[in-house]
Amino acid sequence: MGVRSKKMKILVINSGSSSLKYQVFDMENEKVLAKGVVDRIGLEGASLCHSPSKGSRHIITTEIKDHEKAIQLVLDILSDKDHGIIKSLDELEAIGHRVVHGGEDFSGSVLINEEVMEALKNNIELAPLHNPPNIMGIEACKKIMPEKPQVGVFDTAFHYTMPEYAYIYGIPYEYYQKYKIRKYGFHGTSHQYVSERASAILNTPIEELKIISCHLGNGASLAAIKGGKSIDTSMGFTPLEGLMMGTRSGDIDPAVVSFLIEKENWTKEETNEFLNKRSGALGLSGISSDFRDIQDQAGKGHVRSQLAIDRFAYVVKKYIGSYFAIMNGLDVLVFTAGLGENSSVMRAKICQDLEALGIEIDYDKNFTRAIEAEISTNTSKVKVLVIPTNEELMIARDTYKIVSKL
Ligand code: AMP
Questions:
Q1: How far is the CA of 169 from the centre of ligand 1 (A)?
Q2: What homologous superfamily does CATH list for 9-154?
Q3: What is the pLDDT of residues 231-270, one digit of tens each?
Q4: Contact status, residue 98 vs residue 391, Cβ threshold 8 Å
Q5: What DSSP element (H or E) covers 130?
């Protein structure tokens, strides 16, 4: 690695349709120097909320008409003499971008060039809601800082190693050839981060481990990671497949969809909204997509909230069983993301009666939240870990790795 790499500060950007989150890392010690979020881009009441690690939060409310203006505001505040954390933009060595869908083109993170941009645009069809704002973020950075190297880190890339029989669907093969319909998987950056942390915590080479990682947030997915490689994951062609989630149905009989389209006379948009926004824990409980509310209500005897909790835990348990089978065993079970990191109730429910798979959690140790912890009993064959995810750090690390070689 070059000499300059020691001083490297990296800006990480996660650009959504109307919001943009950022963090700046000092790669010498991997510490966050500042983070923030631009909200309501292109809408009324837009704002930037900037939090330097040393100093107080600063909020700016102003018109932010597009992503270019949002990025400009971020760069201004980062180099602002009162609230900033750098003297000039020269101190930023590179920018790392989260990109949701890499399709079949990317098996890892890449330095962004014309060819990569072309491939990203070709993949818009696969992620029409997510890839366009990711691309807007990259283009805005390119316009404002054309000389800065930019790196794309894909949610799908970690799952590139799935074997064909795992990612192919049982539909006529020509639809895979024609439209690239297959399982891609998401949350890859998170699954990779927690599996690498698990290996470090247990002081065991990742090549020797069979890991199931449970990313349980508003969006939720499991990954089967054998020898450090994802061999299966629960999300599919889109993030809709797999677990029941906050507002997504997860796996259902596909015939339900055509049945409902006929009965309710839904358009394509209404159908997508039903499956992605009105289903899952929200649809079942009828009160909220947030498991904090649902747990609270279940505690007060709300029957359908309890059903949502039971269903969620049951589906996670079924996936754990199937991933145990495809890996022919299990060494580590990891919980991460909002629910996985914080909800001892949900973790306990998922792990209950899994002794047959060698999974035993210690109910006292399980009473932990938002910190790295081992929650299995001393006699449990499988280590059960809680590991807070850190996708931004993973993006910064990949960016650092690629840019250091330039
Ligand atoms: P994420 O998408 O990773 O930010 O996770 C957000 C979700 O985590 C929320 O919608 C909640 O359902 C869940 N969550 C966060 N904190 C808790 C908690 N203390 N107890 C239960 N669920 C939680």
A1: 31
A2: ATPase, nucleotide binding domain (3.30.420.40)
A3: 999 999 999 999 999 999 999 999 999 999 999 999 999 9
A4: yes
A5: none
